[in-house]
Amino acid sequence: MAMTENENQQHREGETTKAIESQTAKLPSKLFLCAALGSMAVSLTLKCLGHKHTALFVGQWAAPFLLLGTYNKIVKTHGHDKQDTDI
Asked: Where is the composition biased (Basic and acidic residues) (predicted)?
């Protein structure tokens, strides 16, 4: 389904979003995967050392790192806002 020009203008990204995406797109996707795996390793280490609550806190970082990596990959693959360049 094609968007009309008026609908397209309502869904454009703001300048701040474009600036953030242009900077984060420079980061390799592997960085986010390594950060997630690293947080799991640190969490396991903390758990083994008896720091239960800190281990749980650090272990919860894995999911946001993976989500950021997925978002980063989408931005790299599909561009910032393809609709902006089509007009």
From this structure: 8-18
